[in-house]
Design goal:
Order of helices and strands: EHEHEHEHHEHEEHEEEHEEHEHH
Strand order of the largest sheet: 3-2-1-4-5-6-11
CATH class of the largest domain: Alpha Beta
CATH architecture of the largest domain: 3-Layer(aba) Sandwich
CATH superfamily of the largest domain: NAD(P)-binding Rossmann-like Domain
Largest sheet: 7 strands, parallel
Distance between the termini: 34 Å
Shape: globular
Number of strands: 13
Strand content: 15-25%
């Protein structure tokens, strides 16, 4: 592994900071390429001191900077993106960072002949699923600029595979949670809202019957999947990364009530709610990556609450 260096866009972010230590354990050097808009400078600084991590404080929108910084790298992980909420508020910035950024990174990786590129795609490429579990070959119906850019990213990877032999894996992450997460994502704000109420002795308030569901996957497992994708024998496919279990909002509330140790029952706020449900078909992850989740939602959420997130 002495000469294996991973070029890691967005490596200073929430998921990246869980992946980097795993890469170092496996003997990779890591070159983080991040504009540090949301990155954790202190945490990155500590990693840089170890000697096997470097930080390039730069933006994926600048193709020349990406090409230059990727020189000498054997592998690429591309996680830099604007979040789903922000993409609706500012579609221009979203297209700029997510679409132009995707293309800059993929084109540079193809030019430089890297061994493997791992792309953070998203379960949101499916839109509202017609059936559960959601399989990689199901019809895609991305609804926001963020989701559209993730789907386009997968298509662009196919283009550079055909044109230049680029070897890639696109990981369709489901609902990621875990220690160190910012509280801006919709579903993490649901978790925080519930927990804050519980800690104040108040019951969680749930819209409708709480039937909306998500496939919550712990960031530790997400990080493991990225390392497996970097090294898998099979490639050039999108792969769902989830647990395969749909946890309803009502179930989540009960898990959090138990974790906090509160003596309350959830309150249901009767109103019409668009019930969306999510659960990953996890068969391809097993077959292509040898990946299965190791942390259950109950254990992961309980640990998050008891250790202060």
């Amino acid at each position: 592994m002495a000469d294996k260096t991973v070029f890691f866009t967005g490596g200073a972010g929430f998921i990246g900071m869980h992946v980097v230590p795993m890469l170092l354990e496996r003997g990779y050097k890591v070159r983080i390429f991040d504009n540090m808009f949301r990155g954790d400078r202190d945490a990155v600084g500590r990693l840089v001191e170890s000697g096997d991590v470097e930080l390039i404080d730069q933006d994926v929108r600048y193709g020349g900077a990406v090409q230059q910084a990727m020189k000498g790298c054997s592998h690429v992980i591309h996680f830099a993106a604007v979040s789903i909420n922000k993409s609706q508020a500012d579609p221009y910035e979203s297209m700029d960072i997510n679409m132009v950024g995707n293309h800059n990174v993929f084109a540079a990786a193809a030019d430089q002949g890297v061994e493997r590129l791992v792309f953070a795609s998203s379960a949101s490429v499916y839109g509202d699923p017609e059936k559960l579990p959601m399989h990689e070959d199901d019809r895609l119906s991305p609804l926001t600029p963020y989701c559209i850019s993730k789907r386009a990213g997968e298509d662009l990877l196919g283009f550079y595979q055909r044109r230049a032999g680029l070897s890639w894996v696109a990981l369709r992450f489901f609902n990621v949670y875990g220690p160190g997460q910012k509280t801006t994502a919709y579903y993490t704000s649901v978790i925080n809202h519930f927990v804050n109420r519980l800690r104040n002795g108040e019951p969680p308030v749930i819209d409708g019957k709480g039937e909306q569901s998500m496939d919550f996957i712990h960031v530790h497992d997400i990080a493991r999947s990225a390392v497996l994708a970097l090294e898998s024998e099979r490639a050039n496919v999108p792969v769902n990364i989830g647990t395969g279990i749909d946890t309803s909002i009502a179930d989540l509330a009960r898990i959090l009530i138990d974790a906090v140790g509160a003596d309350v029952e959830p309150v249901f706020n009767p109103r019409d709610v668009l019930v969306s449900r999510r659960a990953a078909d996890v068969q391809r992850a097993k077959e292509v990556l040898g990946f299965e989740h190791t942390i259950s939602v109950r254990d992961g959420m309980t640990d998050l609450i008891r250790n202060g997130g």
